[in-house]
Amino acid sequence: MGNKRRTPATRLAGLAGLAGLVSLTLTGCSADEVLRFGWPEAVTPQAARMRDFWTWSVVASLVIGVLMWVLILWPVIAHRKKGDALPRQFQYNHFLEWIYTGIPSIIVVVLFYFTVTTQEYVLAEEAPEDVDVTVNVLAFQWNWQFEYEAYKDQSGATVAPRTSEGPLVQTVGSSTEIPLLVLPTQSQIHYNLRARDVIHSFYVPEFNFKRDVFPYPEKNNQDNTFQNSIDREGSFVGRCAELCGTYHSGMNFEVRALNPDRFDRYMILRRTENDATGEPYTAAEALTMLGEEDSSCGDLCSPTATTTSPFDTDRKSRTSPN
Ligand SMILES: [Cu+2]
Question: Roughly how many angstroms between the first and final C-alpha of the chain, as a whole number?
């Protein structure tokens, strides 16, 4: 056994360390997953910044937590009642009082600083000339309309996408069709949010971001815009996150992030007349065409949503949407 005496405190610390190691290794988490501390994966730089903040907040909390556990367990284990003599008293110790008032105040200030700077980054908006796509989101009971106000085409020119003098390119959802919000990756996207009736909320879980959608936002002095960019191609479900009436739970949409080349082609198709119908290509028709032209597109060019399905409006139906 040697001369080393294992005190109850060191034994406890060893046990806690072993339990931590076992829980880390047995769950099979990667280093990245461990450092995410349960924060959901996302696809925007804004979400990555929030994740960094979360990771460092948890690390700081764990450091303080461990220190606190030691400070609590140490007297509990090593300083048990040894006799009837009153132990040394520490009240009215100004130095200690300064320490335990000062340190928490510094912690609050540091957390506040990083909360504000992260929030400023997430809510920052580029100047209009640096925006690549502007999309007007209209929420209504119980669906969504997406209108492309302007986008920069491959040549870098800003285009208001309309067919000759027709309306701007729009995608509207219905009870049988989930609306697809097709957006380019690696581009600055500006969202204008507006509701036609009650308060809704634009929520894409993989953006780690939601924002309430109000009717008449200007009249109520509400900030109804935000910007982000999407890191990679993919289909991401979107939801209404504000209880807005009977079919609120079915008010889903899908963000379809395509690379800029595919997005450009999509926008051209949306303004081109489809010979089969005599009307400009709808979102579904344009995506079908895109998939036929580019076999590597796969599910990204699916004409219907792949992350959710339309809500059955039959009130006797018992099924709910995904
Ligand atoms: Cu809603």
Answer: 61
Give the whole-angstrom CA distance, residue 10 versus residue 46. Answer: 43
Residue list, CB under 5 A from ion ligand 1: 200, 240, 244, 251
User: CA 236, CA 40: separation in Å to the nearest integer?
Assistant: 13
How many whole angstroms from 126 Cα to the centroid of ligand 1? Answer: 28
Structure tokens, 3: 């001369």
**Position of tokens 């204008």?**
192
**What Rg, from alpha-carbon coordinates, does the chain have?**
28
Continuous H helices in the chain: 8-26, 31-36, 45-78, 94-123, 260-270, 283-293
Which tens digit of pLDDT belongs to each residue from 106-161? 999 999 999 999 999 999 999 999 999 999 999 999 999 999 999 998 888 888 88
Centre of ligand 1 from the C-alpha of residue 248, in Å: 5
Task: Write down the pTM of the prediction.
Answer: 0.83
pLDDT in tens, 7-30: 666 777 788 777 776 766 666 667
